[in-house]
Write a structure and sequence with these properties.
Two copies of one chain form a homodimer.
Chain A: E1 2-10, H1 15-26, E2 29-38, E3 46-49, E4 52-55, E5 57-58, E6 69-72, H2 76-88, E7 92-95, E8 124-126, H3 130-145, E9 148-156, H4 164-178, E10 197-198, H5 210-223, E11 230-233, E12 235-236, E13 242-251, H6 257-265, E14 270-272, H7 284-287, E15 293-300, E16 309-317, H8 320-335
Parallel strand pairs in A: 1-2, 1-6, 2-5, 6-7, 7-8, 9-11, 14-15
Antiparallel strand pairs in A: 3-4, 9-13, 10-12, 13-16, 15-16
Helix pairs in contact in A: 1-8, 3-5, 3-8
Chain lengths: 336, 336
Amino acid sequence: MVKIGQLAVVGATGAVGKEVCTLLERRSLSVGTLSLLASARSAGQSIKVNDRNITVQELTEKSFHGVDYAIFSAGGGVSKKFAPIAKAAGCVVIDNSSAFRMDSDVPLVVPEINPGDLDYHQGIIANPNCSTIIMNMVVWPLHRENPVRRIAVSTYQAASGAGQAAMQELTSQTADVLAGWPVEPKVLSHLIAFNLFSHDTPIGQDGYNQEERKMIDETRKIFHVPDLPITATCVRVPIPRAHSESINLSFENPISASDAREILSTAPGVRVVDDAIANHFPMPIEATGQDDCLVGRIRQDVSQPGGCGLELFVCGDQIRKGAALNAVQILECLAG
Amino acid sequence: MVKIGQLAVVGATGAVGKEVCTLLERRSLSVGTLSLLASARSAGQSIKVNDRNITVQELTEKSFHGVDYAIFSAGGGVSKKFAPIAKAAGCVVIDNSSAFRMDSDVPLVVPEINPGDLDYHQGIIANPNCSTIIMNMVVWPLHRENPVRRIAVSTYQAASGAGQAAMQELTSQTADVLAGWPVEPKVLSHLIAFNLFSHDTPIGQDGYNQEERKMIDETRKIFHVPDLPITATCVRVPIPRAHSESINLSFENPISASDAREILSTAPGVRVVDDAIANHFPMPIEATGQDDCLVGRIRQDVSQPGGCGLELFVCGDQIRKGAALNAVQILECLAG
């Protein structure tokens, strides 16, 4: 049982914040005082944690006195303003936003991969992007055995990545389409009901959007391979809360599908779902609510020479391992 | 105006058959006699073509006397049995199933790509797989300018690829999920409402499913490059009738995004939708009901050396260019 004196959850009423509260109940964590913090608009709400109703308080500059750890999941703007304030108050911040991920003095950590990076933290630890975490969970165990020389990934990303309001938009917009009512996107920038679209983050000079850039840059940082060749295409699909990814890998040495399956079957946080006879492979509906990332369609890439290529298909709960669980695991590492 | 004496549409009450009827109205085709054929179960239904109600007749061994051309869209079993019968009766068959696609005496044709292959037909011409057609429409124009050395594709395939009943299942199952009712897959083998899954065709020894194998083998045949390295991951998504594909290409020589955009902007049957500032790229909802395949996210692949890689995202109407339109275009080539 890991003991924590005082913990704050910033953005407690959001999709990830709520999941963090749920996980605090399930994990081996004993929290002395739990502060749930959110914007003035959400303050006053009550959230039940471990059978105690806790009132959400407004996040202010004074919220972090005496707080040992804070998990931030309230967007980059809130993190940029309040994480330094929390740090100055002696609180260690686990930040779920992209605000500090690429800062050289901020560890970017997936506990199954690079827990040692926590050693160099200066008060802020960054939780990686959800698509990055889910991809890395299955690529890292292979990379340890046989260095990855290139990653090409295409994603099938759930609405939850854009927050609770986007998940609600998927549901309500789908109902409206089925009823024949006119629909107009409000939270997401394009229609999500029975539609999909390129991830609606800004596009850089090189044509890659910010989500793709995160997958590339963050993977390099987590793997400690600053020049690892990676390409990504990020797509939003009409799925509530589990991301899927089609991952094509090139390795330094030959690797067979059965080698890969064996490595992945013992990888922590990974479950192999790869039944060709039953045609049963990872699906968002089965990854939802699971701690593990599901991996299947493990096969040697017939287009790559020398047996050095692999194809994989992975599904992971975007809110769980893609965000809240990874943050709570970091907390467990720090406080354990 | 292309004149045809007698045309039969086999599988006239299916999703593709109905679309063929619609296209006969829109295209420059003058058909003397149109026979609509289907199973005994569907015979007797009436379909309006060019303001005339035509009664669907039962497909029998005698259906092809005097028929000049037949478009088959009733599945592989029907094609295997009746296409040879039609051919023996002097009818030229355009077959939408996979039954004859890889036969050496059967041309596999996308009219924008290899219309010359029609010359060697022996009475049967195969219409390629829908995902193959949509991919080839954008890869071929680039390949002509700069030989493609490898294709790696991940698909986002609509329910329509599994027929009309699958499209209906998507709608009704989604409504049931929203209503909180229990759901059970009937047409598709896994839940399609708010879910996605690996294309549910049998998996071969090499781990690739039949849909992926079609994309690989058919592209090689259409391009006349029998050993072209191709890998594919085919996934069914909860979208009604337009397929999307994330395509990663390797070329013999360097190619810039602007080179590719210029080539694709003049390619027949292709429309470039690639507005990075408005974040507007191909979407199934905008490809639905369109003859053209939409292509965007055109960018140089940062993971490939020497500027020889490209990333593309394409959407095409599965029933239209993925099936019915391509078949009607073949008919126009043959009869023109």
